[in-house]
Amino acid sequence: MQLKKPKPIRRLLTAATSTLLAGTAQQVVAAEKTPWQVDSAFLYYSEQDRVTVYEPVVAVRQETGDDEFVGMRLVLDSMTGASPNGAIPTDSPQTFTSPSGVSTYTTPAGETPLDSSFHDTRAAISADWEMPLDERLKAVFGGNFSREYDYTSLGVDATFSWDLNQRNTTLTTGLSMSQDQINPVGGVPTGLSPVPTTAGGQKSTEGDSETKDISGLLLGMTQVIGPKTLLQVNYTFADEQGYLTDPYKLLSVLDNSGQLRASDPYVYEKRPDSRQRQALYVKGVHQFGADVLHASYRYYWDDWGVTSHTYDLHYRYELAGGRHYLQPHLRYYLQNKADFYHYSLEDNNIPAYASADYRLGDMSTTTIGLKYGLVLGESHEFGARLESMQQKAEGDAPFEDNTAVIFQLNYSFLF
Amino acid sequence: MVVATEPSLLLERHDGYFCSRFHAMASPCELLIETTDQALAEHLGRLARDEALRIEHKFSRYRDDNIIFQINHSHGQAVAVDEETADLLDYAKFCYELSDGMFDITSGVLGKAWRFDGHTAVPDEVTIEQLLNHVGWQKLNWSRPQLILREGMQIDLGGIGKEYAVDRVAGLVQAQTDCSVLINFGGDLFSTRARQAGKAWQIGIEQPDYDKLHKQAVANKLIEITTGGLATSGDARRHIIKDGKRYGHILNPKTGWPVHGAPCSVTVAAVSCTEAGILATLAMLQGEHAEDFLVTQDVPYWVVR
Amino acid sequence: MKTMSLILLLALLAGGCSSMGVQPWQRGHLAKQKMQLDPYPLDAFLDDHIYFSKESSSGGAGVGGGGCGCN
């Protein structure tokens, strides 16, 4: 077509047009009104006899220019209840000091010890800015900040997406960096040092706070396979340096008769101060008629010896009328333990690193759920989902199952 | 709510304004009048309808009793035209020169070869060549008020008719009232003045389903217009697909073929609807360079690809 | 070694995929919200948070996102 630069003709055209017409407006004032897309949700998560979380979220997004978007998200999560502290159940009651050292709590015989001193509210805010760098290249820059009484996190990230093959292939690169600060109640306990068992007992500490630096990398590719089929393949890498231990978790130390040893029966856990995580993720999306299937698989491995497989499936089943849908969801997660995971420790055989946190052990998580969605108009939708999650031990360590119910309500609209 | 009807005119009352609707130039037409005076709204509605129908009857190429029919069946004889037609022909000539021949009201005959319903075969070179013999403003003789068309040539004012009608109605309406009036003839529109209390008239631009992948589904664009004109060129649905290639419906009058890489639609805002329409059409004719053209003209625009 | 072969695999996939795909006018279905890779970002965000707190794996779908002292 025209290869030469276009010439400005508007003024001449305006003059000619006003000769043609009786009178014209003196000026043009016309602009695109861009609404705010508001997504809100409320999550209720409740474990049997353990932790309950209430989590409201609000996210807003707006188009601020040609293919330029700005978004913000605010999350509050309020947690109550008790979590396992890492000690194993025994035939007699056990007493532990709370992290502050000021009070104690007792677990009845035969029960998994749970620490109920966590009544925590966390607030997190994040913002992102999406802009085109070129016709085929787009960038998203983001930042996030979160705060709870003993933990602060600040991070930034950038993701670049490059479209090829008539936008059928998209290559994505992402980078992130964050720094977390932990200020545990009662100070940072010295790893593998004894846990006081009487009120007022002092634990050995390394100071009041520690930090953790995390950097992440993403390499991904999205490919359009057909008019109703998409495939995504991602590789992610994360490097964590600093304090990676959970300051509130401990391990039981048993003597050679299998009973808790008489003096210093519990020690604080200690994890390495570096961790490199990698994951390979594949996701497919396919439309069957009006229904849509999303299926993904992730293989994860890190240098702590943890490997896992995550299978996730949801099928959006459109109901008659096209205004609402049902979406069953199935997720199965299988994890192999970390090298330093121990159910309990043996006296005189304390390793360099150890943790009894079941979340580092051989375990599986099975989630089954159903979502109902109602489309009320353009970008105007209501949704409700109910899921059941069950975690169980899959190896030698006989830790208790963790069962939870997940209930979430969503409401999105244009403002 | 509907407050009055007569054959071919409907009046509705809304919160703060009236809406008068009728059908003309193969489009749904409406007048939004910011007033509480129903009699005024009815009067302006009738005025707009009458003027729109007048222009349609005068310049439609589907009628056999107007100046266009006379011109297109003149068989090479000179036709003396009236003032209004002469003004439009002067304007068409000006646009032809300004656009280096891309805007050409004699290119209508090419439509005989192309029927854009998504199925028909692409015409062959010979057919196009033959039709091109009858295309080209430079081949006719315009010497106000005489127009001489060669045998086989046709003129078609469809490309500016609707926008021109919008601006004519705007002129008539402005002479009758100071209220803000939005004239909207099937998406070509004009707002006579700013509304009260900083409000603006809101128009939705339909987006076709096939668009870039966005984080969320693409919403219809909502344009707020305070003053000025807005026109849209293009139609997402009219095209031919052959051998896996898509041919849009905007034809290059010099080659007879659809413009390569034309957007689905171009919407432009300008001081008059006619000017907006010319700019939108010229942008479409630039094909994949539509955006470059519009940026150079320094006008608000929205391109859908 | 494992990492290198993965990156190589991704690169091969990228090269091999150059002939697959759809024409711009066939993107009708792909433009719909339910066909996006992440159609309900809030659902995914909340789930990620649950599983990050209750399991030892993370990553795969995205990068960054913020930490918590989840216990």
How would you explain this protein's 3D organization?
The complex is a heterotrimer of chains A (415), B (305) and C (71). With 415 residues, chain A is mainly beta. Chain A has a single domain (44-80, 123-414), classed as Beta Barrel (Porin). Helices cover 3% and strands 59% of the residues of chain A. Chain A has one helix and 24 strands. In chain A, the strands form four sheets. Chain A has a 16-stranded antiparallel β-barrel with strand order 2-3-4-9-10-11-12-13-14-17-18-19-20-22-23-24. The mean pLDDT of chain A is 91. In chain B, helix 1 (38-59) runs antiparallel to helix 5 (158-176), helix 5 (158-176) runs antiparallel to helix 6 and helix 6 runs antiparallel to helix 7 (290-297). Chain B is built from seven helices and 15 strands. Chain B is α+β, with helices and mostly antiparallel strands and 305 residues long. In chain B, strands 1, 2, 3, 4, 8, 9, 10, 11, 14 and 15 form a ten-stranded antiparallel β-sheet that branches. The model of chain B is unreliable at 209-218 (pLDDT under 50). Chain B has a domain at 67-148: T-fold, CATH 1.10.3980.10. With 71 residues, chain C is an all-alpha fold. Chain C has two helices and no strands. Chains in contact: A-B, A-C, B-C. Chains B and C meet through loops of B and loops of C.
